[in-house]
Amino acid sequence: MRGCKRAKKKTIVGVTGGFSSGKTTVTELLAAPDVLVIDADRIARRLTKPGEACYRRIISSFGKGILRKDGSIDRRKLAEKAFISKKTIDKLNRAVHPEVIKSIKEEIRACKKPKIILDAPLLIEAGLHNEVDRLVVVDIGEAEQLKRAKSRSGLNHYQILKRAKRQIPLSCKVRMADFVIDNNGSIKKTKLQVGKIRRKLWKN
């Protein structure tokens, strides 16, 4: 059992997976009126806006060449500089992860609802799996993953593979999971799997 050291018990479910595996869809299907959804990507986007702590750290690490005319960060340009090597990826993670993790923990502490879903693509990589009671991993085959990533992100094959390399292999995440959702098929099949897991997670 993870997350057992919290003084006031809240059930926290972590949802993670690979790049473009369908985490957001699964999170939406798992959600309920008495569940707070914490979206790590949403928090990261907020903290990388001009004036925020992560914004300043990113500019310091990667330069002003990644900025748009309005001063906001061009994520494509940032990706081109960040996803080059382990060193540059680690540099990006150091600029972003501490503040994102801090914000996530603050939202958990402030939450008045008894149940929380933490949707985070790098949940395990950031050590946040230690904050959850149950871990749901969304599994997807590489071919389907590449297909979805290309259609949704506009990135090419090489760029997608570079991004995927910054994550722990999906097979390793699956071994760590309490529940695994096979998201290679139709949305109907995904809904059936999520429905069964949802009943087990929220039965209390």
Question: How would you portray this structure in words?
Answer:
There is one protein chain. The chain is an alpha/beta fold. It has one domain (11-201): Rossmann fold (3-Layer(aba) Sandwich). 50% of the residues lie in helices and 13% in strands. It contains nine helices and five strands, in the order βαβααααββαααβα. It has helices spanning 23-30, 40-47, 53-62, 75-82, 86-110, 142-153, 157-164, 170-176, 187-201, and strands spanning 11-17, 35-39, 115-119, 134-139, 179-182. It has a five-stranded parallel beta sheet, with helices on both faces. Helix 2 packs across helix 5 and helix 3 (53-62) runs antiparallel to helix 5 (86-110). The longest helix is centred in the middle third of the chain and has 25 residues, at 86-110. The chain is globular. The model has no long low-confidence stretch (mean pLDDT 89).
